Amino acid sequence: MSPATSTDQAGPGSRPGGRGRFGWPVYAWGLWDWGSAAFNAVITTFVFSVYITSDDFGPNADTNLGWALAGAGLLVALFAPITGQRADRSGRRGFWLAVNTMLVVAVSAALFLVQPSEEYLWLGLVLLASGNIFFEFASVNYNAMLNEISTPTTIGRVSGLGWGLGYIGGIVLLLVVYFGLISPDVGVFGITGENGMDVRVTMLVCAVWTLAFSLPVLVTLRDDKAQRTPRGPRVGIVDSYRHLIAMVADLWRTDRNTVRFLLASAVFRDGLAGVFTFGGVLAAGTFGFSAGGVIIFGVAANVVAGLATIGFGVLDDRIGPKRVIVFSLVCMLGAGLAVFALNAGGSTVFWTFGLLLAVFVGPAQSASRTFLARLIPEGHEGQVFGLYATTGRAVSFLAPAAWSISIAIGAAVTGVADKDDAQYWGILGVLLVLLVGLLLLLPVRSGVREDSALVTHA
Question: How far apart are CA 49 and CA 53, in angstroms?
Fold first, then answer.
């Protein structure tokens, strides 16, 4: 029986029944999230993306960055399900986690070569896009390991621990590189900003960070040699897509509950991403935060999100992931409406309700992962988490589009000449995406799955 359906089978990371302390495999697994935050948070969000769009890289750097990341997202959407499927078939999930993680490390280190000059723009963009692809492929296999190291009574806490460590690890590293390399005129070892050396050395630090904290899971959770025999004949890329299409069609016919969850989660996860994507923009543009103030708020928000995610993992196991998601989304809707309605209150309003929003982002993300993990038949985790990545990428335009449209509507309603004066209306667009995701989630049944669609085309 699969760990996803058994009530008494213990994974390697917990004691039977899940009532004891976590074992080393769980902590080793969680440390991957802590380490991989170097690429996700520091490189993609806070440091390298800002560096590559600076004036040194030419007038079209912003637009080209968008195209590069859009292309990466398209490739992830196309290939994530079949890479997960092929890892499931070969029984080498750990191997492919290692391969893709090492590629992320290599890309992070190679970013050191990107000097602040227009001729290096596309080198930086191609490396950044490639890193995003490898990161997403690694995440598919990483998420697929969740059932291996947990039981139905611990899965929420295990997922919450990993996700929480990711939030906190990214901020710890950001503080290290910001105050050690980027902020001071002369950083550690005499490094300065000349020729972009502060940012470029930060890329090397990120590579070492990812490597160091990924090794525990790669060494601890090795593939079982007895399970390395491929499940069925080896198939090519074209046949992999045929299997995928047939599986999705059967999934729709026999297990629409899982399909509905994939759709609902794709929508509300995009809304959750929008909260962090536009939170800093809103803090600076509407509530008057300085650049330093935005960073301080970002640090506080991520720490709060990380700690809350770890804590809510207990609730996930006790009351179920759907209730955690619903409660989190409802609370976020309330806090977001307060940010909109009380926008004239200044920074105090944003500190209060912005941090309240941050409290519930991580728990909703983590519970979404455990909800799906409870539905997946044993041996098909990679394929279904690949679909999870694909559906998320497919609707990733929703929150940005809703943000921009809501600001335009706000400017028209209030009659302001400058749309920036109606920026706070953008939060309503993000909240609308969260609301739609919540409404799509409500009819989805918890802990109910059908094996036939996945098993038929395994």
Answer: 6
Cα 16 to the center of its chain, rounded Å:
30
User: At residue 302, what are phi and psi to the nearest 5 degrees?
Assistant: -70, -35
Q: Other CB atoms closer than 10 Å to residue 247's CB: what's the count?
A: 22
Tokens of 389: 């990545």
3-class SS at 405?
A: helix
Q: Any idea what the Cα angle at residue 355 is, between residues 290 and 352, rounded to 5°?
A: 80
Cβ-contact 53, 363 below 8 angstroms: no
223 phi-psi bin (left φ>0, alpha ψ -120 to 50, beta other): beta
Q: Which two tokens stand for residue 166?
A: 């990711």
* CB 438, CB 255: distance < 8 Å: no
Centroid of chain to Cα 405: 25
Residue 21: exposed, middle, or buried by beta-carbon count in 10 A (0-12, 13-18, 19+)?
A: exposed
The Cα–Cα gap between 396 and 399 comes to 7
Query: What's the whole-model pTM score?
Result: 0.76
How many Å separate Cα 160 from the centre of its chain? Answer: 13
pLDDT tens, 298-341?
888 889 989 999 999 999 999 999 999 999 999 999 999 999 99
